[in-house]
Amino acid sequence: MSNLASLSALAQEFHAMAAGLDVEPYFKSFHTTPQHDGSPHIEVADGKFQFVVTERGSEFERIKNLSADEVLYLLFKGITQHMATRYELKNRVPETDGRSVWFPYQERLMERLNPVWGERLRKEHQRILENYPLQP
User: Fold this and answer.
1) Which of 46, 81, 88, 101 is least surrounded by CB atoms within 10 angstroms?
2) Phi-psi bin for 124: left (phi > 0), alpha (psi -120 to 50), beta?
């Protein structure tokens, strides 16, 4: 993935990876301009990628100097979060913190896309749970 130097090459890789996901077409879109609906778009500045989130004309997040792999990780983290929360809703365990279902499912989804991403997300979830433990 390190040789994805252009937006078009990155978009092509994104679409190839997203094609097999069981998610609405909206989540398989690769934007290079603001949609102003809270979805991310990708820009290039000084030869590096930027991950940008806008909504209703306001910019809420801009992460600069990213590699192609990092952009793909961020995009698929968002997509798999949607998939995992949808899964948790369908498989809800009464009186159980939803993250006990959502987090492992999202980690498995990310691991299927890229084993390194799955492990990275697992560590992120562990840090979250250290600060905000599962509720009974």
Assistant:
1) 46
2) alpha
